[in-house]
């Protein structure tokens, strides 16, 4: 059961790293922003490099490094991500900034229109060149994660976030914004929720006040509509862009910007839940519905109480069945995954099953391994009535389910048979998602 860990600077770690994605796979660009010492790098280290939360106290701040130095994390999860983590002060510059450390920039209208006429190969080469140079356009960003330190004065953070939203949304209205109200460990429940409500209300009020003077950059609405027609994951009707041709029309920002708020801490599993929501927000509606339907189907056929499709190295969940999410169940699943990861290095030298054809693709390798029953599985009885079951799906994904112990004991063979079909379906869905 060797699970590769996520790595920075684009290098794949683990023996099966190259099987997860082709070398030039398209990745979703995720910007991780926030003030200095807000906990941005700690989140990445804990989730994607399995660093102990207590060890993050010794991490070097970006403020002590080279100004303008950005780090990219290539995460080969269900939907491959490129996470950009950089110094805090750059968030105020935003796109179009001419400072030495600016990583995000916008494009003039004439260049933007010209870019839309290029074919797919030319556009891909242009994007790859800019990423290689450390530059990224707002139009290529899928998600912005903004981290706010809940234990510090967050009024300046809200102002910076408001400025960031105005600049980026004017260029790319498809960006999803996830606000992490971070470092809430040790705070009372009432204080945590009051802080989140205050941050949310202040930001929405600021966006409402700015709606009267807000304007898209020339050609942004039209280009986003064209992108939607080419198969973009979010249609322009979601933002009220239908019929918008004049970028100076009044636009209700408070109801149009896609905002998500999360209470997070690296000392519990809330940060894994929040990053799970980030990944799920990047999925198209049909893809998310297919995964949830598969989880509902396996729960119905095997009588699971709850099922999670987990990305094991990052301990985030890609999907679950449609029953309400219970934090206590997810905590239990995370603890079990942590326990299994302790033994993953024991199997790190194992190689994929030998293939009869040297040109066998990743898909056929996965299917062949599934047919030969080479995937790991385990069952742990938590108490006399409840058991947690684990089935490896591919090199990163696993199905983890909660089931009554007596049902699992009586129907173990039938459950494994049903899971084999579930595994085949998820592998096929993953191939479509990663090649889209």
UniProtKB/TrEMBL annotation:
<comment type="subunit">
    <text>Component of the GSE complex.</text>
</comment>
<comment type="function">
    <text>GTPase involved in activation of the TORC1 signaling pathway, which promotes growth and represses autophagy in nutrient-rich conditions.</text>
</comment>
<dbReference type="GO" id="GO:0010507">
    <property type="term" value="P:negative regulation of autophagy"/>
</dbReference>
<dbReference type="GO" id="GO:0000329">
    <property type="term" value="C:fungal-type vacuole membrane"/>
</dbReference>
<dbReference type="InterPro" id="IPR027417">
    <property type="entry name" value="P-loop_NTPase"/>
</dbReference>
<dbReference type="GO" id="GO:0005525">
    <property type="term" value="F:GTP binding"/>
</dbReference>
<feature type="compositionally biased region" description="Low complexity">
    <location>
        <begin position="1"/>
        <end position="11"/>
    </location>
</feature>
<keyword id="KW-0342">GTP-binding</keyword>
<dbReference type="GO" id="GO:0009267">
    <property type="term" value="P:cellular response to starvation"/>
</dbReference>
<dbReference type="Pfam" id="PF04670">
    <property type="entry name" value="Gtr1_RagA"/>
</dbReference>
<dbReference type="GO" id="GO:1990131">
    <property type="term" value="C:Gtr1-Gtr2 GTPase complex"/>
</dbReference>
<dbReference type="GO" id="GO:0003924">
    <property type="term" value="F:GTPase activity"/>
</dbReference>
<feature type="region of interest" description="Disordered">
    <location>
        <begin position="1"/>
        <end position="20"/>
    </location>
</feature>
<dbReference type="InterPro" id="IPR006762">
    <property type="entry name" value="Gtr1_RagA"/>
</dbReference>
<dbReference type="GO" id="GO:1904263">
    <property type="term" value="P:positive regulation of TORC1 signaling"/>
</dbReference>
<dbReference type="GO" id="GO:0005634">
    <property type="term" value="C:nucleus"/>
</dbReference>
<keyword id="KW-0547">Nucleotide-binding</keyword>
<comment type="similarity">
    <text>Belongs to the GTR/RAG GTP-binding protein family.</text>
</comment>
<protein>
    <recommendedName>
        <fullName>GTP-binding protein</fullName>
    </recommendedName>
</protein>
């Amino acid at each position: 059961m060797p699970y590769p860990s996520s790595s920075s600077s684009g290098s794949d770690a683990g023996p099966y790293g190259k099987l997860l994605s082709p070398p030039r796979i398209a990745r979703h660009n995720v910007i991780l922003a926030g003030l200095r010492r807000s906990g941005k790098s700690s989140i990445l280290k804990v989730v994607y490099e399995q660093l102990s939360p207590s060890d993050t106290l010794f991490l070097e701040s970006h403020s002590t490094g080279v100004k303008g130095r950005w780090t990219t994390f290539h995460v080969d999860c269900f939907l491959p991500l490129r996470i950009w983590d950089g110094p805090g002060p750059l968030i105020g510059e935003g796109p179009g900034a001419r400072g030495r450390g600016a990583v995000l920039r916008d494009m003039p209208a004439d260049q933007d229109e010209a870019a839309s006429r290029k074919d797919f190969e030319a556009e891909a080469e242009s994007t790859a060149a800019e990423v290689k140079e450390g530059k990224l356009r707002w139009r290529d960003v899928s998600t912005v994660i903004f981290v706010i330190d809940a234990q510090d004065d967050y009024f300046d953070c809200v102002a910076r976030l408001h400025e960031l939203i105005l600049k980026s949304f004017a260029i790319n209205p498809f960006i999803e914004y996830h606000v992490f109200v971070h470092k809430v460990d040790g705070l009372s429940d009432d204080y945590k929720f009051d802080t989140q409500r205050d941050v949310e209300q202040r930001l929405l009020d600021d966006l409402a006040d700015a709606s009267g003077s807000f304007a898209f950059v020339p050609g942004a609405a039209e280009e986003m509509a064209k992108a939607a027609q080419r198969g973009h994951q979010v249609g322009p009707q979601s933002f009220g862009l239908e019929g918008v041709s004049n970028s100076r029309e009044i636009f209700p920002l408070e109801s149009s910007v896609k905002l998500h708020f999360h209470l997070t801490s690296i000392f519990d599993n809330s940060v894994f839940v929040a990053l799970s929501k980030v990944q799920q927000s990047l999925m198209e509606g049909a893809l998310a519905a297919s995964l949830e339907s598969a989880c509902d189907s396996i729960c119905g056929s095997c009588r699971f109480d709850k099922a999670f499709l987990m990305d094991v190295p990052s301990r985030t969940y890609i999907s679950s069945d449609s029953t309400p999410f219970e934090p206590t169940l997810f905590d239990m699943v995370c603890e079990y995954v942590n326990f299994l990861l302790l033994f993953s290095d024991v199997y790190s030298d194992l190689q994929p099953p030998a293939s009869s054809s040297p040109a066998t693709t990743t898909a056929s390798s996965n299917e062949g391994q599934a047919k030969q029953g080479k995937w790991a599985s385990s069952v742990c009885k938590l108490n006399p009535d409840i058991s947690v079951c684990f089935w490896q799906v591919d090199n990163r994904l696993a199905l983890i389910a909660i089931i009554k112990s007596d049902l699992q004991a009586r129907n173990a063979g039938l459950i494994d048979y049903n899971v084999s079909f579930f595994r085949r379906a998820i592998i096929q869905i993953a191939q479509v998602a990663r090649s889209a």
